[in-house]
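Students often ask what a holo structure prediction actually looks like on paper. The answer is less mysterious than it sounds. You provide the chain, you provide the ligand, and the output is a string of discrete structure tokens encoding the 3D arrangement of the protein together with zinc ion.
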Amino acid sequence: MKCPIISLLACLFVSMTAFSWAAELPDSVDYFTDNGYGNPVALIQHPSGEYYRGVTYVTYQGPMEDPYVASYHHETGKWTGPYKAGTSVLGKKAKTKIDNHGKPAMIIDDAGYIHLVFGGHGGLESYGENPLGNTHLGKMIHVVSKKPLDISSWEVLENIPPFGTYNQFVKMDNGNIYLFYRHGAHRSNWVYQKSTDNGRTFAPPVSILKTKPCKKVKAHDAWYCWFLKGKKDTISVGYNYHLCKEKAHDGERHNGYYMAMDTKDHLWRNVKGEKLTVPLTKEYADRMTLVIDTGDLWSVRGVAALDSTGYPHVTFTIGEGMGLKHGGPKQINHYRWTGKKWTSGGCPDLPVADGDIRVSSSNNLDLLLSHKDDNKIGEVAWWHSTDGGKSFKKGKILMQGKRTGFAITSFIRNAHPDALVVVGGKKGKSDFTKMYLLGDHGPIKRLRAEADQLSPSEKATPKRRKQR
Ligand code: ZN
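The corresponding structure tokens follow.
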């Protein structure tokens, strides 16, 4: 029989050291599955999950680059799944690299059906001419749960083009669903499609950022975007520019930009409220929507959030050239609009990291960041600022692992504090990754017998080459 005092002490200990607790209970682990595959989650394909009526639903890239869905009932502590929710065109040829671009995004419609869009990396040439750009690989696919809030069975809805990638959902308070994506490979417009019938049909794509031959060098103008629901009826986007070279192509990207759309009239405006004509060209975006001109430095698109006054905060990672891709010097930077100008504290306190931002007022902001320190210890931790981003202090560490890299999603939609983000923990050389549902008390636990999903043959699968 358990002594109540010992139980109480055990509870206190557990809450203080949530991420190490699992090791002490042999039948419980801190991951909900071990079948994440490749780079199973990222910030850009989002939301990666949604909290809805007491349950958190999550999605990620699983075996064969197919989308998987699991759910966690917060009151009963019961996990369900993961279930395979669709079949990607990507990931089916044994000798090709893991493509990793087809990660799923999730939205739950007003009738409770769960939607995923996944599998796109520009679409194969065999799908025909892409009217808004070029083609590459995969096929953007839309699936929906056959029953409301039931993740066990899914069907394909043939109602979106095959050419998309970097799929992102925004759902408005009136239930309208916007699907944003790049309409093809690098040299493609960014677009949205609107659904007013719970995702059963979508209006044709509307271009918002234009790809075109670059004026200065033999290259095309290209873009990377991250969308979010703004105040009331607005949708905001933080984005950066990719110089897509014809020869010696590399990851050269610059600058940071911001703009917002009012979904009442579908007009885009810059941060000053000036109306914009879409699709924006590079020159027009530079003139009207620039947050930061990085000059010769390169940038990586981050995330955005609005403070209580409706002013935007955006993040971009900025560094020297290819160092951005290969672990060289780089810095996550935070910018906020004061009402008159964009300002930044330079963020010298912040680590080299990825993650989302939450803003309660213009001065109080919280970043949930994944990074690896000099001792190769990976961690996901809060970083807080109380002076509008001039300085940051590290807060609570939510999870930590030696020689582990943590891939982190954007915040889950309507997130419960116990389940803020989905995390993939990359350790060792396997292509498979343990998946965590992480909140303010660390990862949510699961019985080992339920969480260990991989078969011995899957574990023995030869490692494939990676593509970011
Ligand atoms: Zn390119």
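The first strand starts at residue 28 and ends at 29.
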